[in-house]
UniProtKB/TrEMBL annotation:
One GO-annotated biological process of the protein: allantoin catabolic process
Biological classification of the source: Eukaryota, Metazoa, Chordata, Craniata, Vertebrata
Role played: The function of this enzyme is unclear as allantoicase activity is not known to exist in mammals.
An annotated Gene Ontology molecular function: allantoicase activity
Family: Belongs to the allantoicase family.
InterPro entries per record: Allantoicase (IPR005164), Allantoicase_dom (IPR015908), Galactose-bd-like_sf (IPR008979)
Name this polypeptide is given: Probable inactive allantoicase
Gene that encodes it: ALLC
NCBIfam families documented for this protein: allantoicase (TIGR02961)
PANTHER family reported for this sequence: ALLANTOICASE, INACTIVE ALLANTOICASE-RELATED
Pfam family, one: Allantoicase
Length: 410
């Protein structure tokens, strides 16, 4: 058996790449400082799309490159940049992508991190248009207040591998359980990096939660994560607990078509397809709690939405979760509590349901979304109250009526 990758060491593709990119501009990531942006600005590092190459494109400063590229250094030191994560939380891994930087990628990198309090941060000058520029003395003075030289190392100085011209991924595993808010990327001594992906899960301060307002307990920005699924042919289930609305079908969970579908399809008396199979995904909640409302969005899935779905919940300890993952989520039926019965879904539609939870003390740690027979979902929201709060709320009368609401997508 091969040894597990050590923290901060260059490693092969791992499951952490299916987590959220916490540094992406699409979730609010921001470059605060870079020593040099001569050929291409550091803002390119956190673009959400993949890097591209334009063979005959040049700027007034040189070859156009889709990444961060500094000038050939002729003074002491090395180049580095600082970014604020859009989602603060636990980092599981990095991808330092040098795609298309075949003759000018940075040969060595290291990555540092810090957990900084937002209200104590110094004022950092806005960067504006940076191509052709280097950091000013004023910018160096402002960023020095963060004392980034002393930040914790998550990746020590490591040589990068160029890979293929269009696929230069360098993956680094991180085992730290700490919460991080800022990243410093060091390149030695200079050169180019196409993208920096910071994969992980958010971490919410639940003590600051308003007890009167429900929270999305499965949101990946708060710490929710997919811990098992049956099929993810065209999109990982972690996508459906992502930040904001889906941007396209690629931003959702989509399975392959099941091969056990009957040759001639039929419905039951409620209009539900009569098929033998289903697909499922299990999520660990960001915080144990009570689910009161369920939102399932099939936006963009017009010809490939599921026919129906159901949602169940259960309570598992960390040890029980580890054991059932090894068993591919074969869990006794009585362990699952129904939150949403089998319910018809509509294509390209946001559906809002009341949970079947009867009383506030019915806490769960995990939720399972089952779709029938297959297809795609763009978002799943499980609105409710974390357990430490719901136990303080007055008990409400059991809700015996099941209601369904629809929200039309714009």
């Amino acid at each position: 058996m091969a040894d597990a990758p050590k923290e901060g060491r260059l490693t092969r593709f791992l499951d952490f790449t299916q987590l959220m990119d916490m540094a992406s501009e699409s979730v609010g990531g921001k470059i605060l400082f870079a020593t040099d942006d001569f050929f291409a600005p550091a803002e390119n590092l956190i673009k959400s799309d993949s890097p591209c190459f334009k063979e005959h494109e040049y700027t007034e400063f040189g070859k156009w490159m889709d990444g961060w590229e500094t000038r050939r250094k002729r003074i002491p030191g090395h180049d580095w940049c600082v970014l604020r994560l859009g989602i603060q939380g636990v980092i599981r891994g990095f991808d330092v992508d040098v795609s298309y930087f075949t003759g000018d990628y940075a040969p060595l990198v290291s990555i540092q991190a810090a957990n900084l309090e937002e209200d104590k941060l110094p004022e950092i000058p806005e960067r504006g248009i940076r191509t052709g520029a280097a950091a000013t003395p004023e910018e160096f003075e402002a960023i020095a207040e963060l004392k980034s030289d002393d930040w914790s190392y998550l990746v020590p100085m490591t040589a990068l591998k160029p890979g293929n011209p269009a696929s230069g991924h360098n993956y680094f595993l991180v085992n730290s359980q700490q919460r991080w808010t800022h990243i410093r990327l060091n390149i030695f001594p200079d050169g180019g990096i196409a993208r920096l992906r910071v994969f992980g899960t958010g971490q919410k301060d639940w003590t600051a939660t308003d007890p009167k307002e429900p929270a999305d307990l499965v949101a990946i920005a708060f710490g929710g994560v997919c811990v098992g699924f049956s099929n993810a042919k065209f999109g990982h289930p972690n996508n459906i607990i992502g930040v904001g609305g889906a941007k396209s079908m690629a931003d959702g969970w989509e399975t392959a078509r099941r091969l056990d579908r009957p040759p001639i399809l039929e419905n039951d008396e409620n209009g539900i397809l009569l098929v033998p199979g289903c697909e499922w995904a299990v999520f660990r909640l960001a915080h144990p709690g009570v689910i009161t409302r369920i939102e399932i969005d099939t936006k963009y899935f017009e010809g490939n939405a599921p026919d129906s779905c159901k949602v169940d919940g259960c309570i598992l300890t960390t040890q029980e979760e580890e054991a059932v993952i090894k068993q591919k989520w074969i869990l006794p039926a009585h362990k699952w509590k129904p939150l949403l019965p089998v319910t018809k879904l509509s294509p390209n539609q946001s559906h809002l349901f009341d949970s079947l939870t009867l009383e506030l003390q019915d806490v769960i740690t995990h939720a399972r979304l089952t779709i029938v027979p297959d297809g795609g979902v763009s978002r799943l929201r499980l609105w409710g109250f974390p357990s430490s709060i719901c136990l303080l709320r007055p008990r409400e009368k059991p809700m015996m009526k099941f209601s369904v609401g629809f929200k039309a997508n714009p």
